From TrEMBL:
Residues 3-92 form the Paraneoplastic antigen Ma-like N-terminal domain. This is Uncharacterized protein. InterPro entries: PNMA (IPR026523), PNMA_C (IPR048270), PNMA_N (IPR048271). PANTHER family: PARANEOPLASTIC ANTIGEN, PARANEOPLASTIC ANTIGEN MA1. Residues 174-334 form the Paraneoplastic antigen Ma-like C-terminal domain. It comes from Scleropages formosus.
Length: 403
């Protein structure tokens, strides 16, 4: 009915229901100016404003919501407004709760709510299940939390910002010409550096391709140029794959792994030098796709324990050290190997310096091991008796000559 429409309409529009009326039976061709003219002619509404229109549920006429400056009750307003024409008269509808006693803010609200439920044919029991427990208001974040979040967001943005325009270390030159010209790198060394730098550069793939192209000349540059012409959407990794196919080893990943497993420490070779040889082969296996980055450390330490000389003191120490520990990285392993090598070298130097002096005697005397103790008198300054012990068991050489 019109009263229910009035209550719902006022709630949606945020209008005080005491200052609102709904006109029913209004033709759809009636303008707001005509409505204002009719209402002003009555004089009880005060200043009016049309706040909404909608079609009646039954019929071709419309309902018009009007906000007034005066309080509206059935006792103060006419039930109908006369309007000349075929569409009149208009019925004036106000809320019936205006006749209820005012019981303060809460009582007034309850009366309005109960009146609305009655107009809709509902009771409190019908709507009690619609309302759950009131959620607790969100706790305002602490100022320190806001500051930390802001700093974290700023750091993430700075780290994610590409550094295309910043200075960078250029790659070494590579042309693929044999023998390697002065000032250029062999392919293995160049590919090793380039692969490492591609992981370090925080820039777009376009910039990476430009930096690779800057380091190439001769046949290597021709290969990249032809690849770019045939497929403009190639990536920096595609550049490296094409160069690997042209200048890298022709061995497959499986062949390189067999060669890696068959590389052993040579007699007289330091373990650190053997480690460098192994790592070069291991990275060649990785470039061919024969090993993942996460598995390189485990593969390396297994081959060091397997391929090092059995009597190498440093290798024995490394085997014991990492038997029950996670596999070390290349730098950690190389550091431990060098420290052990330096320690063993220092011990040998100290041992050589502590050897007794070796002398050659007269005639039949060969190398003698001498242990002597000298003691000087503070008063006379004369040298006391020297005690000599000889390996061959003879007496003092001077006494032997005199005899």
């Amino acid at each position: 009915n019109s009263i229910a429409v009035l209550l719902q309409w006022c709630n949606d529009k945020g209008i005080d229901i005491r200052k609102a009326v709904v006109l029913s039976g209004v033709s759809v061709d009636i303008t707001d100016e005509t409505v204002y003219k009719v209402l002003d002619g009555v004089g009880v509404f005060g200043h009016c404003k049309v706040r909404g229109r909608c079609l009646e549920p039954a019929g071709d006429n419309q309902l018009v919501l009007v906000e007034t400056t005066n309080d509206m009750t059935k006792a103060t307003i006419p039930e109908q407004l006369a309007f000349g024409g075929e569409s009149g008269p208009w019925v004036v509808n106000v809320s019936e709760t205006r006749e209820c006693p005012i019981l303060g803010e809460r009582g007034s609200f309850q009366a309005k709510f109960l009146s609305f439920l009655a107009s809709e044919g509902k009771t409190l029991a019908d709507v009690s299940g619609w309302f759950g427990p009131t959620p607790a208001p969100p706790v305002a974040p602490d100022l320190n939390t806001k500051l930390v979040d802001a700093i974290s967001s700023l750091v993430e943005k700075c780290q994610a910002t590409p550094m295309d325009g910043l200075g960078y270390r250029k790659l070494r030159l590579f042309s693929g010409v044999k023998p390697t010209p002065p000032g250029e790198e062999e392919y293995d060394a160049w590919a090793e550096q380039t692969t490492h730098m591609l992981d370090e550069w925080q820039c777009s793939d376009i910039v990476k391709k430009q930096r690779i192209a800057e380091s190439l000349k001769g046949p290597a540059a021709d290969i990249v140029r032809c690849l770019r012409v045939s497929n403009p959407s190639v990536t920096a990794d595609d550049y490296l794959k094409a160069l690997e196919a042209a200048f890298g080893t022709t061995d497959s990943a499986a062949d390189l792994m067999v060669r890696f497993r068959g590389t052993f420490q040579q007699e007289g070779e330091k373990l650190s030098a053997y480690l460098f040889r192994l790592d070069k082969l291991l990275h060649a296996v990785h470039r061919k796709g024969g090993a993942e980055v996460a598995d390189l450390d485990q593969i390396r330490i297994e081959q060091v324990a397997r391929g090092a000389l059995s009597h190498d003191l440093v290798a024995m120490r490394i085997r014991t050290m990492y038997k029950l520990k996670p596999p070390p990285s290349f730098t950690e392993l190389l550091r431990d190997v060098r420290e052990e090598e330096e320690m063993i070298l220092a011990r040998q130097s100290v041992g050589n310096a502590a050897l007794p002096a070796m002398v050659r005697c007269v005639g039949c005397w060969n190398h003698l091991r001498i242990s002597e103790s000298l003691r000087f008198s503070d008063s006379g300054g004369s040298e006391e008796k020297r005690n000599h012990t000889y390996v061959c068991g003879l007496q003092n050489p001077e006494q032997e000559n005199n005899s």
